[in-house]
């Protein structure tokens, strides 16, 4: 699956949508359990406090000197009945610079006995050069990240 073709961007958003074989609850746990998120994202560290006001913190590429990336935000909504997560006040830090705040909305919708539709969107207020930097970061990182997530949720994940 070419995840880059699934990404949509606009004036103040980026979003992706795809299906995976598995239940919405598995997707929720992949995002709300720090150990699971750290595994599939191949992150160096993850602190997820799955309650309103809790931290959402992920660091990756830490071992590659000078290439560390991190996102940090605040849990705004954790709805395990509707399989919906929102994270606000996200700041993304990378060697290329800092971006934020970004709002994150994640939904898992069961579409079949063992199929779920994953929907993720960012909203932001970036303009001009910052908007170009933001879009470039999305297209550089999302395809690999969501490829790993899909493999993990479908049981085809290999830890390296």
Would you mind describing this structure in some detail?
This protein has an 8-stranded antiparallel β-sheet, covered by helices on one side. 24% of the residues are buried. It is built from 3 helices and 8 strands. The mean pLDDT is 92. The protein has helices at 24-32, 34-41, 128-153, and strands at 8-9, 13-21, 45-48, 55-60, 69-79, 84-94, 97-112, 115-123. The protein has one domain: START domain (Alpha-D-Glucose-1,6-Bisphosphate, Chain A, domain 4, 2-Layer Sandwich). The two termini are 21 Å apart. The protein is of the alpha+beta class.
Offer a concise description of the structure.
With 160 residues, the chain is of the alpha+beta class.
Q: Spatial order of the strands in the main sheet?
A: 1-2-8-7-6-5-4-3
Backbone shape: globular
Q: Give the uncertain stretches in residue-range form.
A: none
Main beta sheet: strand number and arrangement? 8 strands, antiparallel
Instruction: Bin the helical content.
Output: 25-40%
Q: Which fold name fills CATH's third level, the topology?
A: Alpha-D-Glucose-1,6-Bisphosphate, Chain A, domain 4
- Using only C-alpha atoms, the radius of gyration works out to 15 Å
Give me the secondary-structure category: alpha+beta
Q: For the terminal residues, how far apart are their CA atoms?
A: 21 Å
**CATH class call:** Alpha Beta
Based on the coordinates given, report the CATH architecture.
2-Layer Sandwich
Secondary-structure element string: EEHHEEEEEEH
Provide keyphrases for this structure.
27% helix; Alpha-D-Glucose-1,6-Bisphosphate, Chain A, domain 4; 8-stranded antiparallel sheet; 160 residues; alpha+beta
């Amino acid at each position: 699956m070419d995840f880059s073709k699934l990404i949509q961007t606009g004036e103040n958003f980026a979003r992706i949508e795809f299906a995976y074989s598995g239940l919405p609850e598995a997707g929720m746990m992949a995002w709300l359990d720090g150990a699971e998120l750290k595994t599939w994202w191949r992150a160096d560290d993850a602190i997820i406090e799955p309650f309103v006001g809790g931290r959402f913190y992920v660091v990756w590429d830490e071992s590659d000197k000078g290439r560390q990336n991190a996102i940090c935000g605040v849990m705004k909504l954790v709805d395990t009945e509707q399989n919906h997560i929102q994270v606000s006040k996200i700041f993304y830090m990378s060697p290329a610079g800092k971006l934020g705040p970004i709002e994150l909305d994640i939904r898992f919708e069961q579409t079949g006995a063992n199929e779920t539709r994953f929907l993720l969107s960012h909203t932001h207020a970036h303009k001009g050069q910052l908007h170009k930097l933001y879009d470039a970061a999305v297209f550089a990182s999302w395809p690999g990240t969501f490829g790993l997530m899909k493999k993990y949720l479908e049981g085809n994940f290999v830890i390296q």
